[in-house]
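Dear colleague,

As promised, here are the two records you asked about, laid out in our usual form so they can be pasted straight into your sheet.

NAME FIELD: protein one
SEQUENCE, THEN STRUCTURE:
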Amino acid sequence: MAWSLLPDGAVDFVNQRWLEYTGLSLEEALADPMRTVHPEDLPSLMGKWRADMAAGEQCEYELRLRRADGEYRWFLVRTVPLRNEQGNIVKWYGTSTDITERKHAENALRDSGVQLQALTRRLVELQDSERKDLARELHDRIGPILTSLSINLKLIKDTLPPALRQALAHTLADSRAQVREATMAMRDVIGNLRPHSLDDHGLQPALAWYAKQFSARAGIGVSVRAGVPYERAAADVEIALFRIAQEALNNVAKHARAKSVEISLECHGSEYVMSVVDDGKGFRASDEHVDGPRPKLGMVTMRERAQAVGGRLSVEPHPGGGTRLTVRVPKAPQPT
């Protein structure tokens, strides 16, 4: 639909398409061209139009216009000034393009994004719940069995005749050593599934414990520091940041060729911020394990965990060499 306006903004022409859409006569359209604008859109439209007209600049709006049958549809409205040789505005020309289907698609996409975030959050919650349950089962069921085995082996050793005890000494010692190794391995698995220090003491102690375990396995020095003061986040935020740090360290071990890593925890205004900085080889924009066209599963998982708690994750080269991964999560609003 098309129309034109005088320099003062008064409508002096609307085309036939406008009349067909609105069901108005030419006289009605010229007398009150705003009568078809949705009442909720009218105040902001008039305010913006006055400002744009005073500035003499072309402008765009999205608003709803009432059709002849009473239905409101979305339109993209564009208005452009025509100037004379002296630069004065002598006319305004405008068009309205129906964008209702586009708006519906945008709304559907936004709704699907909200639903996807909710599903991601639920999936993360289920994963963490399963990890917690499995850690409890290992502790409550397998732990006592290993303890009993160790006690039984000692009892057997103590009750054997001296000659038989000496003959089986190596076998018994090896068996008890294997029970100890199995117990230590089980504790490591439980810690990785759900560190007790995370629930009891918070994110920094849990990361410090995991960093020590990681350094022993990978031979990469890891330090953990927290800003002062550092506030504890909600439980779902802390577990999300812990899992992201775990995956980030795994990526460092697999890809970075780094010698050291620093994990920092800070509170910046209304955000919790965690950064993981390594001194490795860095990355190119096309690297698959960062933000390439086919990111690896670890990067996807970290992004999903950040998004599940309303946060955002970024990866960039570190100025001193290596890579910086940063996660920012907004603090939950405080009750009033």
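NAME FIELD: protein two
SEQUENCE, THEN STRUCTURE:
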Amino acid sequence: MSKLKEIQAPIRTEMNLFDSKFRDALRSSVPLLDTIMRYIVKRKGKQIRPMFVFLSAHVSGSFNDSVYRAASLIELLHTATLVHDDVVDDSNERRGFFSINALWKNKIAVLVGDFLLSRGLLLSIEHNDIELLRITSEAVKLMSEGELLQIEKARRLDIKEEVYFEIIRRKTASLISSCCACGAQAAGASPEDVERMKLFGEKIGIAFQIKDDLFDYDNSKLIGKPTGIDIKEQKMTLPLIYALSNADSATKRRIIRIVKNNNNDPEKVNEVIEFVHSGSGIRYAESKMMEYAEGALKILDHFPDSVYKESIRNLVMFTIERKF
């Protein structure tokens, strides 16, 4: 975490003030809802998304109060999608804590997600932040489409590389893209610079997701996440897609059969992990991740040098070098 704190240094004041503004946005007069909101605040993660909002604002425009609203809107949206995702995935844990649905059941979790979404909508409308609302609504649409596209394609386990990129562009990259676009928009950047920051965020989002997918095949035991989860959930990610595309037909059939029928057998899951390593799936995915990260950094060249630009560069590197 010390690396993140170092990156955060130029926006530490903004991040501290954001914490209290975000807590205010979550308050409710319904005791049960207020209890759940306090639980959500206590277990917040690395807060990478608000960092992208604040740094994008500083890099591309003039920092003002609407930037805080942009960060709150993004965080409300992100938290709502996590709560709903845990219901969809029937997951009982999130960041080492019990999920909302594990503690309060699915019905309440769905309503909590709806409450968070509505708070974001109201926050925007109350301050006439219509353009921020447009950017984030587009992200919600893309995230839903990405999730449904993944479900549709996963049934056949024959996802091609271009479909994988389309899924993660919508499902993951759209939110980080909206972080950077909202930061620039709230800071009064030109439409061209808002578009630049949007593309910057999309490229980072794709690199971020590839990094997450690589964790599943890391057998070094040095990372903070369990391996083999995607295989157990029959998710076809880039390392496996690439390795399969270069395998002979008999090997391809055998690996797909394991993913389909033996995904809960630790030995068989390890067999798939070994296959991906020997099939250059890891090397290829790492090279694609770097390609997207370098593309993002190139976009930053357009903006003047500053401590904020240096921090957002370091945040890009953090997303692809992180161990968790």
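A couple of things worth noting about protein two: The two ends are 10 Å apart (CA to CA). The longest helix spans residues 100-126.

Best,
R.
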